[in-house]
Amino acid sequence: MVNVSGKLMAPEDLARQVAAWKSKGKTVALAHGVFDLVHLGHLRHLQEARNTGDVLVVSLTADAFVNKGPGRPVFPAEARAEMLAALAIVDAVVINHAATAVPMITALKPDIYVKGIEYAEADKDVTGKITEEQEAVEAHGGRIHFTDDVVFSSSSLLNHHFDIYDPTLRNYLQSCRQTDMLPRLLQAIDNLAGMKVLLVGDTIIDEYQYVTPLGKSPKENMIATRFMEREVFAGGIIAAANHVAGVCAQVEVLTCLGQADSHEKLIRQTLAPNVKLSAVMRSGVPTTRKCRFVDTGYYRKLFETYYFDDSPLDETPQAKFDHLAASRAKQYDLVIVTDFGHGLIAPSTIAALEKNARFLAVNAQSNSANHGYNLITRYGRADYICIDGPEARLAMGDKHSPMETVIRDRLATRIDCPNIVVTHGKNGCITYNRDQGFTTIPAFTKTVVDTVGAGDAFLALTSPLVAAGCPLDLVGFIGNAAGAIKVGILGHRRSVEKSQLIKTVTALLK
Predict the structure, then answer these.
(1) Of 77, 174, 333, 365, which residue is the least packed, with the fewest Cβ within 10 Å?
(2) Using CA atoms, how far apart are residues 5 and 16, in angstroms rounded to an integer?
């Protein structure tokens, strides 16, 4: 019987053990991966890894850092670790709480770092991690070894032989595989690299106050809470711009900040290196901040407080903003408008953008601060509209008609726009093109950590695709993949990166 528990080690304990092995002249090999479903390919890979040295250590990616698509990993890290520890050829197992193996390589300093043959060509690794990992192992005198044996895919095996998706999604993904959609999706994403994108809209500071409920106050009709910690994110158009920056090389943000409490330092620190910030300052008011009080138990939001002034800008800053919008719009391939209805986007701004943008993508959001006052019908034309179901129904004053009727017979006749996507949260999205008609795409995940910013991520990553002429069935697929990634991220702790998007799309269709 293999002593499984003795092989499962914490990183600091394993580092001492590896040092002890090496002091005795033993060669230590390190293999790293997800190992969600251990199969013959894994066994052959680990056997060859074991043969390269005297000791084999396996590190596996913690659940929070697995980028294999919605619903993954199927097996939690503890179960995956136990499975690997049960193999006689494995001497130690450790869970790696990072997106890359670099921290583990740095801590353990293995003599040999072992990866599969599919990583031998570094330029084909969309994550870029293999290059960083090779540099890390060589930095302390180690070397990288690529195993070359039978190659299987956990994602493919899970997709084809296990019911990890509900029937509707499973059938949809199978139909996509039959039409060989994957290479077209990957090509569509790669084609965006040279696009120049301008984003126009509201900056929002999203503050999360994490609290623990204590119970009802004995003297008041309210719940008392204990403050635990806080996080402050640059959201709104800033978060959207960072999503775009992952797939497009040149991005600019045109927005407005409040001089009273601008948060400009946080905003500039948050923006990706390839994003330029152009901001008009508004005196006497803060940059819009939305403070959400969040129960730490399951990250349930209790309530929120807005710190903002949503009255129209004064004449001078509005004229400056509109002039910038008109002049900048001419310089970019695509203009994305994230209109949160907080007083920035005036009728004059809309007119300037409609006149000067080569390709105009718009979202006019309905939220608790503007409900009924910020409808998509404020826009007379657009090349692409992306809104959610309630926003579409509210704009058309139609509560009960089928969504296809609302889109085709109402929305598309009211606004001059050939491409419309309506998102439906857990039910996916509906795409509509004036010539191609409708496509319905189911949601790719039912597991939600936080919905804040999911619609913005969908808009940000689909707008360049539509501008590039990508068919809307592919646009909707990539948008749903982006949304599935984003709802798994608390607040704006990170953006939807290109590598993560590619890995998710690939995992879904393997």
Answers:
(1) 174
(2) 17
The pLDDT, as a whole number, for residue 500 is: 87
Q: Model confidence over 423-457: pLDDT tens digits?
A: 999 899 999 999 999 999 999 988 888 999 999 99
* Domain chopping of the chain, boundaries: 4-161, 187-509
Strand partners, 144: 113
d(CA 108, CA 13): 10
Q: CB of 418 within 8 A of CB of 453? A: no
Does 235 have pLDDT greater than 80?
Answer: yes
Q: What angle do CA 67, 71, 75 make, to 5 degrees?
A: 85
3-state DSSP assignment of residue 338: strand
CA angle 324, 384, 405 (to 5 degrees): 140
Is residue 160 scored above 80 in pLDDT?
no
The residues facing 286 across adjacent strands are 259, 261
* Position with higher pLDDT, 59 vs 147: 59
Q: What is the mean pLDDT of residues 195-213?
A: 97
Give the start-end residues of each E strand in 329-426: 334-339, 360-364, 384-388, 419-423
- Long-range contact set of residues 175-180: C-beta below 8 Å, sequence gap at least 24: 176/477, 176/509, 177/509
Q: Does residue 297 register a pLDDT over 90?
A: no
Q: What is the arrangement of strands in the sheet containing 275-282, beginning at the earlier edge strand?
A: 275-282, 250-258, 196-201, 334-339, 360-364, 384-388, 419-423, 429-433, 437-441
* Tokens standing for residue 125: 């690794």
| pTM for the structure as a whole | 0.78
| Range in 75-84, 198-207, 388-397, 478-487 the model is least confident about | 75-84
The two structure tokens encoding residue 497: 């990166």
Q: Which residue, chain included where needed, has tokens 């819009």?
A: 288
CATH superfamily of 187-509: Ribokinase (3.40.1190.20)
For residue 344 the two structure tokens come to 């920035």
Q: Do domains 4-161 and 187-509 have the same CATH topology?
A: no
CB within 8 Å of 331: residues ≥ 6 apart: 196, 198
CATH topology of domain 4-161: Rossmann fold (3.40.50)
The secondary structure of the chain in percent helix, strand, coil, rounded to multiples of 5, reads: 40, 25, 35
Beta strand 112-116 with 143-147: parallel, antiparallel or unpaired? parallel
Q: What distance in Å separates the CA atoms of residue 321 and residue 279, rounded to the nearest whole number? A: 8
Q: What is the pLDDT of residue 242?
A: 98
Average confidence (pLDDT) over 291-303: 91
Say how far apart CA 8 and CA 87 lie, in whole Å. 12
Beta partners for 423?
388, 429
Helix/strand/coil for 238 = helix
**Could you tell me where the DSSP H helices lie in 330-418?**
347-356, 389-396, 403-405, 412-414
Mark 267-278 as b/e (b = at least 16 C-beta within 10 Å): beebbeeebebe
Return the structure tokens found at 76: 């939690």
